[in-house]
Design goal:
By secondary structure, the chain is an alpha/beta fold. The chain has helices at residues 15-28, 40-47, 70-91, 103-112, 127-133, 140-148, 154-157, 219-227, 265-274, 292-299, 310-317, 329-337, 348-354, 357-374, and strands at residues 2-6, 34-38, 56-60, 95-100, 119-124, 160-165, 179-183, 204-208, 234-238, 254-255, 277-280, 304-307, 323-326. Strand 4 (95-100), helix 4 and strand 5 form a beta-alpha-beta unit. The two termini are 22 Å apart. It comes from Yersinia intermedia.
């Protein structure tokens, strides 16, 4: 039995990522029993688009505290830690896959892993940047804790493996001796409605994808909308939730939901289908966390305009063509106003192949065999 655990997500949060990761393991272990230990509504979202729902069983629910309460968050981490350890001991899974893992909990699991039998896999994504740089107020002490203590004994290492969701992600120095495999974030790509060619449109829609926030530099999108408000050939739309940090940039030129709540999936889909171009303003730090928003652009076949950074340089090396990069915002605006987007060369098939579930399963399967042959 393989046990998948996520004690951080609720409802639809990262459900597509977790669903895709489970499907990767399904390709590697087609005859294995799968169980998922997570918050109940999150499990429902995970299995929502899986044809054979009986192959993935709901193990039990975890308590997920509101991120606005640090005290409740600490309580939920302690409760879930004890609950998960007991579940592993009494159910004896062959493998445990942490689909996400809070840094302090990660440290505690490492400390007691000598007493646990299963092989353990941890899926790593954007938290690596926060831990390495100590840039997040909640994760700063966690980053110090993980880096301050050596936990790479051979006995522990043989049990633990880390799955980085991005070939471009740099391995932190404190994890150089770990079992690490890099895969590009596995994604399900479905057929989309045919789109009208840009050259046939009298007005184009520029979109920002994902949550709009200052940390993601999305305020520059709202500023661009104000600057170009007199141009009636351009429409601006935010396809996801708008963070409170954006409220001071709020303006009528951006079609956005300013409630601060996550939009229903059908509304997000409607907005993405209406987008002609996606705009990204991330800096080089995005190389550690890029995936979700860009993959939505790939999934809905939306050409991308972006400020140049390491992530898009990585895609360029992979010969993936669906985007155009600029050195600054002025250069991007000039390109938009000159109708240069008509000439963007897009080949979404190569991008979809790079991020396919099959490609990820092939790499992960080979790495799993290598880890255990070495140990």
């Amino acid at each position: 039995m393989i046990l998948f655990i996520d004690g951080n997500q609720i409802d639809d949060q990262h459900s597509s990522i977790n669903r895709s990761m489970i499907k990767v393991f399904e390709l590697i272990y087609p005859n294995e029993e799968f169980r998922v230990l997570c918050e109940k509504s999150h499990y429902t979202k995970i299995v929502d688009n899986i044809a054979d729902k009986h192959s993935i069983n709901y193990a039990s629910g975890l308590y997920i505290a509101s991120p606005n309460s640090k005290l409740k968050k600490i309580f939920s981490e302690i409760y879930n830690f004890l609950f998960i350890i007991c579940y592993i001991i009494f159910n004896n899974p062959r493998k445990v896959v942490f689909l996400s893992l809070y840094p302090t909990s990660h440290y505690l699991y490492r400390r007691i892993s000598n007493f646990l039998k299963p092989e353990i896999y941890v899926v790593c994504h954007g938290e690596l940047r926060f831990i390495r740089n100590n840039t997040n107020s909640l994760l700063t002490p966690c980053g110090w804790m993980i880096k301050a203590f050596s936990f790479s004994t051979n006995k522990i290492k043989s049990k633990w493996s880390y799955i980085y969701l991005g070939e471009q992600i740099e391995i932190p120095l404190f994890m150089q001796n770990e079992n690490i495999v890099k895969i590009n974030l596995p994604t399900e790509f479905k057929a989309i409605p045919p789109k009208q060619k840009l050259i046939n449109k009298t007005c184009i829609t520029l979109a920002t994808i994902g949550v709009s926030s200052e940390s993601k530099m999305t305020h520059l999108f709202f500023e661009m909308a104000m600057k170009l408000k007199s141009n009636k050939k351009i429409r601006f739309i935010a396809t996801g939730a708008v963070d409170h940090t954006i409220m001071k940039y709020k303006n009528s030129n951006v079609d956005a939901d300013y409630s601060g709540q996550f939009l229903p999936s059908n509304e997000v889909e409607k907005r993405l289908n209406s987008a002609d171009l996606a705009v990204f303003f991330y800096n080089d730090a995005y190389a550690d966390v890029a995936s979700g928003a860009v993959l939505e652009a790939i999934r809905y076949e939306i050409p991308v305009l972006a400020l140049n950074n390491k992530y898009f340089q990585f895609l360029k090396k992979k010969n993936v063509k669906f985007f155009k990069c600029f050195e600054n915002i002025d250069e991007m605006e000039e390109f938009i106003l000159s109708d240069g987007y008509y000439d963007i060369n897009c080949d979404f098939s190569s991008a979809k192949k790079l991020y396919s579930i099959e490609a990820a399963a092939k790499i992960l399967n080979a790495s799993i065999h290598n880890f255990h042959s070495e140990n």
